[in-house]
Amino acid sequence: MLIPFLSATWTGATAALLIGYLLGSIPFGLLFAFAFGEGDVRKIGSGSIGMTNVLRTGNRAAAALTLLFDAAKGAASVLIARALFGPDAALFAALGAFLGHLFPVWLGFRGGKGVAVSLGILLSLYWPAALMALATWIAVVAIFRISSLSALVAAVLTPVYMLLFHRGHEAVLAVLLALLVLVMHHENIRRLLRGEEPRIGAKSKPA
């Protein structure tokens, strides 16, 4: 049975969601931090396993690999689901990968904040809009050097970029991802409002 307004079946969508979740829940930030001798990244800074918190260890190689592999798992989720179940099922895989990264079952449902994995997802779904989102992130980083602010601005504008290219289904997904990004960054938003949010490259004290 087809899902209304989509070409995917409920079975395909469910399988795609599960595939995405399992791939998205691989904690590359934690793994690379340990591999480079930086210890448990969950015990510093924000406690996140994402690239920005790995960078707070001062190890740029570990942070770069985290960014690369987190983006790759998002892209892989979409590409695998698209090949197996079709383009609309890939949207469910994308959501699953994002949720897996945010709430990995292996880590007590405490993961990252979704910035890098969302880049991989967007690149595999529709790369022109993804490049616009990436350009937005880079521009805000260049001006303010605050990763969370860059992520928030890029996330909020991504649905707009999708709509500019008439990608309605992807825009709906982008809205869901943006809402999740806002929720996961609620502490960052409070610090931004107080002017206390740390800048990129600054080492953090234990969480």
Compose a concise summary of this entry.
The chain has 207 residues and is mainly α. The protein has helices at 10-24, 28-35, 51-55, 60-85, 87-102, 115-125, 127-144, 147-164, 168-184, 186-194. 69% of the residues lie in helices and 0% in strands.
Which SSEs are present, and which pair or pack?
Elements: H1 10-24, H2 28-35, H3 51-55, H4 60-85, H5 87-102, H6 115-125, H7 127-144, H8 147-164, H9 168-184, H10 186-194
Helix pairs in contact: 1-4, 1-5, 2-4, 4-5, 4-6, 5-6, 5-9, 6-7, 6-9, 7-8, 8-9
Largest sheet: none
Taking Cα atoms only, what radius of gyration do you get, to the nearest Å?
A: 17 Å
SSE order, one letter for each helix or strand:
HHHHHHHHHH
Number of strands: 0
In helices, the fraction of residues equals 55-70%
| Average pLDDT level | 93
Judged by helices, strands and strand pairing, the structural class is mainly alpha
Low-confidence stretches: none
Shape: globular
Q: How many structural domains?
A: 1
Number of helical elements: 10
